C-alpha cells in the first residue's frame, strides 16, 4: 500500500466483490504515500493477515533510514514523525513472513530473506524455492506482478503477469508476486492484487483503476518529493 489510501480502498472494494474467504497483505502498509495511518487502519479492519515490510520496519525505527534511497528516506522520516500510536501498535505485532500454512508460504521479501530480497530473476527464484518448504510461495517487495515456476527436472521459468494472467498451480513449485497496490513498477499504474484459489490451485492477477490524482495530490500537499507523486501516473 505504501500509504496510498485511494489505491488500497479500490483494491479492497474489488476483493470484496470477488467474495474471497481471506485477504492477505504482504507488507509495506506505509512508505511513499501521504496517508500511512489510514492505510494501517484499513489493513487492520479488512485484512485477515498482514506482514511487516521493510518500509514498515523503518517507520518503527527497526531499520536505519540510511539504508534507504534518497526519496525513500525522506518519506520514511516523514512517516516516522506522523505515525500514530494505534498504527505503531498494530505494526509492532507483525512479522515479515508467515509459514504456518501447509499449502502456501507468505513472505514480504523472499523465503531466503523475508525483509530485503527482491526476487526478480530465475536464478534467485531457484534458490528461494530450495529454501521454501511449501510448494507455493507468495512474495511482495518488488512492486512487480510476476511468477516463477519450476517443474521436476526443468529449469525455473518466469514472466511478468499483466492484468488477466491465469496460472494453473497444480503441478511444480511456484513463487508468485501480486504486484504493487500503492506504487506499481511494471508500467501499469493501476493497483494490483492476486486472486488465489488454493483448492483448485489457480492464480489470477487483477488490476484496478483508482484516482491516481487524489493520491498524487496528497503526496504533493504533504510536501513529500514530487517524484513520488509523478511516478504514480507512470507505474514506474
Give the structure's gist in a few sentences.
By secondary structure, this protein is an alpha/beta fold. It has helices spanning 5-17, 36-46, 54-59, 70-82, 85-92, 122-130, 212-221, 226-234; strands at 24-25, 49-50, 97-98, 104-107, 136-139, 146-150, 157-160, 166-168, 173-177, 191-197, 202-208. The chain contains eight helices and eleven strands.
Give the tags.
236 residues, alpha/beta, 6-stranded mixed β-sheet, 11 strands, globular
Structure description:
The structure is a single chain. With 236 residues, the protein is α/β, with parallel strands linked by helices. Helix content is 33%, strand content 19%. It contains eight helices and eleven strands. It has helices at residues 5-17, 36-46, 54-59, 70-82, 85-92, 122-130, 212-221, 226-234, and strands at residues 24-25, 49-50, 97-98, 104-107, 136-139, 146-150, 157-160, 166-168, 173-177, 191-197, 202-208. The strands form three sheets. A six-stranded mixed beta sheet has the order 3-4-5-9-6-7, with helices on one face. A three-stranded antiparallel beta sheet has the order 8-11-10. Helix 2 (36-46) crosses helix 5 and helix 7 (212-221) runs antiparallel to helix 8. The protein is globular and about 55 Å long. The two termini are 15 Å apart. The mean pLDDT is 97.
